[in-house]
Amino acid sequence: MAFVDNDTRVVVALGGNALGDTPEEQIERVRAAAPELLNLITQGNEIIITHGNGPQVGMIQKAFTYAHQVDEKIPMLDLPECGGMSQGYIGYHLQQALGVALHKAYKRWHVASVVTQTEVDPDDPAFSNPTKPIGAFLSEEQAKAEMAAHPEQKYVEDSGRGWRRVVASPDPKKIVEAESILNLLDNDFIVICTGGGGVPVVRDYNDKGAYRGVAAVIDKDLGGELLAEDCKADVLILLTAVDHVAINFGKPDQVDLEDISVEEAERYLEEGQFGKGSMEPKVRAGIRFAKSRPGRVCIIGSLDKAGDAMAGKSGTRIHL
User: Fold this and answer.
1) Distance, first Cα to last Cα, the chain
2) What is the pLDDT of residue 16?
3) Torsion (CA) 95, 223, 239, 189 in degrees, nearest 10
4) How do strand 172-175 and strand 117-120 relate by DSSP bridges?
């Protein structure tokens, strides 16, 4: 398969874990990554940046939970608000890091972050079976008190470590701010958006069809894939900690994959070749994007080789 041509619209997805566990680590890592992101633009590409937020949104929610336990006047903060806060401060760090890299490269491009909502179906089956653990561990007494005060919330005992809230992980359906993102692209902005898959929202027809947030978690890779579709991107790059997707990972007969068809990727999925919490969601997102329109390609590779991945010198490419 030929390498992707220049003048291409690219969605670049950074993993939340790749950004570190503390604000200090995050600043250091995004500053290290910024030159690679600019390298994608100097190759002639138009980029939209999205990112995970798992460690960051967990940190925010735990802080409010612990603060509430110390002082009941401090409210618990629900997941949509925590997601929005994480998008804001991760976007701020990325804007600053890109600003430093732009100044060093004598470039005058603009950078903007968009707090992004992602519409989900309120009848998604995931809402009937919430399984995604979030937030701090509580005692059984604390968890039952929270469920009594908030009947819509569900807490479960987690392997003897305490009780933890679980929420749904519905399938994303629409990037609400897609038009705003496209308008910024048309005005030469580097856009940062859809952090953590976006803040999940549903239509509220008791409020004239306006959106309202729901406590859920959107898979960040599927959120990035939908962003790429809704913003008419040609390429989706999912950046992680390894240079390639591999089969027989960690075994003596490990094989790094450089270029695979959707059919091959689906066969490897059926064989259980990819880690369920790590590489499998990325491969599924890559398959969905490649199948969404002829000519689209997903690249999975490492953060520190983003430019090489786009140039076809690193990473795994998934295509029809």
Assistant:
1) 10
2) 67
3) -30
4) antiparallel
Q: What local confidence, expressed as pLDDT, does residue 12 receive?
A: 96
Dist CA 122 CA 203 (whole Å):
8
The pLDDT assigned to 3 comes to 42
Listed residue (56, 41, 44) closest to 98, CA to CA: 41
Whole-angstrom CA distances from 254 to 54, 141, 249, 250, 299 are 29, 48, 5, 6, 19
d(CA 304, CA 300): 12
- Buried-exposed string 67-84: b where 16+ CB fall within 10 A, e elsewhere: ebeeeeeeebbbbbbbbb
For the chain, give the longest Cα–Cα distance.
Answer: 60
Q: Which residues contact 309 (CB under 8 A, 6 or more apart)?
A: 237, 239, 299, 301, 302, 315
* Residue numbers of the chain with a pLDDT score lower than 50: 1-5
Determine contact, residues 195/140, Cβ cutoff 8 Å.
no
Q: Residue 2: its pLDDT value, please?
A: 38
Nearest to 202 by CA among 85, 124, 87: 124
How many whole angstroms from its chain centre is CA 307? 20
The angle formed by the CA atoms of residues 121, 124 and 130, to the nearest 5 degrees, is 125
Look up residue 54 and give its two tokens: 């798992």
Residues annotated as part of the active site: 16-17, 132, 220, 282
DSSP state of 248: S
The predicted structure's pLDDT at residue 277? 76
Q: Give residue 53's region: left, alpha or beta (phi > 0; psi -120 to 50).
A: alpha
pTM given for the model: 0.91
- What pLDDT does residue 69 have? 86
Which amino acid would we find at residue 59?
M
Residue 61 C-beta-side C-alpha neighbours within 13 Å: 22
Task: Give the other-Cβ count within 10 Å of 21's Cβ.
Answer: 13
